[in-house]
Amino acid sequence: MVFPYALLGDQEFYRNFYAGVVDLSLAEAFQFYRGALGTSEPGYFLFSFVFAPYINKDILFSVVNYVFAYNIFLWLIRNGVSRLLFPLMYINFYIVVLAFSAERLKLSLLFFLMGACSSGLIRYSLYLFSTLTHVQTLMLVVVAQIRKILHVTHRLFFGEIGRGSIPLIILMVGILLVLVLLKEHIESKLMFYASAWGGAEAMLKPLVFTALSMFYARSRRVEAILASFPMVLASYFIGAERVVIFSYFVFMYYGLQSRRGINVSVIFTLFYFGYKGFDLLFNVFMYSDGFAPVA
User: What are the boundaries of each domain within the chain?
Assistant: First the structure.
């Protein structure tokens, strides 16, 4: 088990919150949450508030990691991705970061993946909770609906309005409600990140992954451009490091479906991020923080 070694960095704050939330009232716990983690997104707070009094954090989030990985590999199997690539997936840098560092984002992406594998009201409820856990996942929620948005837009252009438009309208209303609900939180984060990491230069990495997405999307290039656009735009305002993970996931979505993932770009990035992931795990075991030497 890796979790007992992950004690510093982001985990230090998550551990302090998880231990401190026990025996607090809901209102007291939320105030503590805002001070301890510097966020107002309620998803992770509610999840931890419910389980903290009963389950050890390392055990709970090891189970979360298992379910998260299960959903990733379930998608890979369903889409016929070559199992030769699976070992590199285990130590992929971004997956390791999500497993042992970016805990709120991991929980958010778990709900997103579960939503993507569901349908109807359950899907959109999971998408909503995913966004309320980490608002940046809103970009993936929009991306996941790109094909449906294009289809509905095409029908509306020709004056056709069907029942298929209703779920999309409900989703758009839900997105607006989330933006209103978290307006203050979003504005504060935008001001902080824009002053520190934003700008045209920050768009380079997302643009590279956008180009690769377009190449492997082939006949779906318009879809790939629209799917990548939110990340490119966001990187200008808040910096690449906060959103490039999403650009990478969009690229892998298309790249892994080309020749079952056996192509130059996918294999190269898997080896590169496999090395980075192994290095991060080494740092966790040696320094209790995957980013310790950088810090």
Answer: 7-144+262-287, 182-257
181-217 burial: b if 16+ Cβ within 10 Å, else e: bbeeebeebeeebeeebbeeebbebbeebbebbbbbb
Please name the residue that has the structure tokens 């056996």. 262
Q: CA–CA distance from 219 to each of 12, 208, 226, 230, 260 (Å)?
A: 46, 19, 14, 21, 17
Its pTM stands at 0.86
pLDDT in tens, 136-187: 898 888 887 776 766 666 565 555 655 656 666 676 777 777 777 777 766 6
* Per-residue 3-state assignment (H helix, E strand, C coil) for the chain: CCHHHCCCCHHHHHHHHHHHCCCCCHHHHHHHHHHHHCCCCHHHHHHHHHHCCCCCHHHHHHHHHHHHHHHHHHHHHHCCCCHHHHHHHHCCHHHHHHHHCCHHHHHHHHHHHHHHCCCHHHHHHHHHHHHHHCHHHHHHHHHHCHHHHHHHHHHHHCCCCCCCHHHHHHHHHHHHHHHHHCHHHHHHHHHHHHHHHCCHHHHHHHHHHHHHHHHHHHHHHHHHHHHHHHHHHHHHHHCHHHCHHHHHHHHHHHHCCCHHHCCHHHHHHHHHHHHHHHHHHHHHHHHCCCCCCCC
